[in-house]
## 1
Amino acid sequence: MNNSAFTLVELITVIAIMAIIGSIATLDFHKYNTKAMVEGQTKELFTDIMFARTQALSKQQALNVVITANQYQIVDSTTNAVLSTKAIKYGVTWPGGGTSKIINFDERGLFDVVNNGNTAICVNGSVGDSAIYNSVVVLSTRVQLGKLNSGGCTSANISVK
């Protein structure tokens, strides 16, 4: 007699192994998804700061980027008109703390480093350490993406990419 069927123990064992592999894959997917979201938010913040800088330069008009814990706005410095508002999912930090950070670009598109110093903005996230980009550094003549190494959110602790 030819018995080629599977036993109940064999089926349960295979299902258990598949469940374990599936749960590991789900945990890794969540980690990679959060990492991608942190990187995406960092790149979007970088792009909008660069947009404000280039708009200040091309229109020869001072613009501010006002960043709070849950949103940021691009604001016309002379009329205080809000040009753009975006929500922040993972929150951000900057040196000195406070409730908001204002990045002022003059009509030449320059950031005043003498009075404000280099500005670092770090995106918070549960896997922010594994993200390739999790911070933005604003210098007088450029804006750069970076990765916070260790310590507080300062431009000295960020590796610029």
## 2
Amino acid sequence: MSWRIERLATDGPLFEGAIDVYSRAFAQPPYSDPGRGDEIRSRMVEVHCLREGYRAFCAVEGEGCVLGMAYGYHGLPGQWWHDTVAAALSRAAANRWLSDSYEVVEVAVAPEHQGRGVGASLIRELLDGRPESTAVLSTRADSRAHVLYGRLGFEILTTMRFAPRGAPFYVMGLGLNAAGGVK
């Protein structure tokens, strides 16, 4: 492994590199959304970095070449994703998975570095030491990302659409161990 994991601030060259990686990763099918990086930049800087438990990391090679990024925060009622997913789950499942959860909000790896362990390392670092009892995320059902999450122990909780004619997404959950992190 010739790369390392570093904390990701919401400004500076690493942040710009992370947004570039995110844009390139989500410009690829099935997403085909090259402008999504600008949306993520705004959400990270203006909203998400202010949430309880916010953490962000990037995988860096050499003198600052960003290979991937990931961030998340503690999920709470009143947050759009939390409430939307809670409504799609049974009351028991919502209580089990969302009452004390860490939301893995975004994970992106540069297309040329996918499949090399970068994403798995970012997720492990993101969840390391977290006090929550579960980690949850959503990913498009037609992407390969759910395979990575499954290898890390995430299980599919439900399949849902976040928009009436939108793509189907898997909502996935992982029980965290008592010391925090991936079991």
## 3
Amino acid sequence: MNYSNLLFFVVILLIIYLIYAHFIIINPCKFISCSVIYSNNKFIITDPLNQIIIYNETPYYKNITIVDGHLSKVYIGNLNGYPEFSIWNVPTLIQPGSYLFFTIPDTFAIHLNLHSEYPVTVYIMDSNQYVQFSKGLNYSYQNKYFGSNISFWFNESEGCAGYVGVITSDVSQIINPNETAVYMPANHSTGVCQT
């Protein structure tokens, strides 16, 4: 076997592995009319007669439907009231002398649940306060929370894009945040945007 045949064989094996490991996702509805639905932790592809042609437990295509090779439905949040979106839920390392920054989007109320082994401080700041903080100058803040189990709602951002969050710690540790945002647009300016 020469090197070109060996290379071709290795590339084919790599492609098969990537498809199997779901790094490459092939849309089976590209060439036939079918639906792809993910519900109850099951991945189901049906043909036009609603007969199941593929059934797999995989996290891909979660809460979407593909018809005739085109995306037709996507679940993006609880639309029966106000949609809620997860913004930050990845465990993150924080070290003394540094800080973590998180966004507070305009037209949303945020809910932050944060758990850590040792206490942390969470500041909610407007953009001017953050500039002072980031330059190491004297700074103020809108709200301050301290502890190892912090949970709060902040809704002054429902009509204002002027806020950010900062987290500091006196020890090196992993924090476990769960920041969600609920779409709640105000019909007037709120918070620091009122001035």
